[in-house]
TrEMBL record:
It comes from the Eukaryota. This is Wax synthase domain-containing protein. Keywords: Membrane, Transmembrane, Transmembrane helix. The chain crosses the membrane at residues 7-26, 117-135, 142-163. PANTHER family: LONG-CHAIN-ALCOHOL O-FATTY-ACYLTRANSFERASE 3-RELATED, LONG-CHAIN-ALCOHOL O-FATTY-ACYLTRANSFERASE 5-RELATED. The keyword Signal does not apply. The keyword Transmembrane applies.
């Protein structure tokens, strides 16, 4: 555990230093291939940083935030596209917007208490699900599979919402919503493409098209 903690500290210190370089140096270079070339050492580093862990859990989390999310955003940034354009006014915002699935809200709206209520309900349901696992022997396989699906969905939603709320308080700015009432989806395509984890299509569309 001590070695994993040391690796975690080293990895994220390396990531913060690398992203700080991306904030100060590449914006002074012409967008396109020249800027992309200046970012290549950072992109390569983010590919190998998850390998510093022996824990699969930490490796997957780091791969999601750095290898996938940060690298895609930085590649878009090299061509003046994506959520890092326009350049955030401070380094702390640039680091958070690069690593986490968040984006600054262009037209901030008045504070709405409903998202907090929904978040509290999700946490309560998640707690009930954890309690139900104690009776898994009495549950049918179909119901248990449904519980696993809801568990996975709620866990990801709670983690992303927690990150968004903490960063929002830390940065003092409004952020774009990460989902659009996914529980009201009418189809799998509607759920995946239009309602759940809106940052994924927001990054993938400009990257591939």
């Amino acid at each position: 555990m001590d070695e994993e903690l040391k690796s975690l500290i080293k990895v994220w210190i390396s990531a913060i230093i690398s992203i700080s370089y991306c904030y100060y140096i590449p914006p002074r270079i012409k967008s396109g291939v020249p800027r992309l070339c200046s970012l290549c050492p950072v992109l390569a580093l983010f590919l190998v940083l998850p390998l510093c862990f022996s824990s699969v859990h930490l490796s997957l989390i780091t791969a999601f935030f750095l290898t996938w999310l940060a690298n895609f955003k930085l590649i878009l940034f090299s061509f003046d596209k994506g959520p890092l354009i326009p350049l955030p006014p401070s380094l702390s915002r640039f680091i958070c917007f690069t690593c986490f699935p968040i984006k600054a809200q262009q037209n901030p709206k008045s504070q709405n208490h409903m998202p907090k209520l929904v978040f509290a309900i999700k946490v309560a349901i998640f707690g009930v699900l954890l309690h139900l696992y104690g009776y898994r022997k009495n549950l049918s396989p179909a119901l248990l599979l449904a519980l696993y699906f809801v568990h996975l969905y709620l866990e990801i939603e709670i983690i992303l919402s927690f990150i968004k709320n903490v960063v929002c308080i830390f940065l003092g700015c409004d952020l774009e919503p990460q989902s659009n009432k996914p529980y009201l989806a009418t189809s799998l395509q509607d759920f995946w493409g239009r309602r759940w984890n809106l940052m994924v299509p927001a990054i993938l569309r400009p990257f591939f098209f």
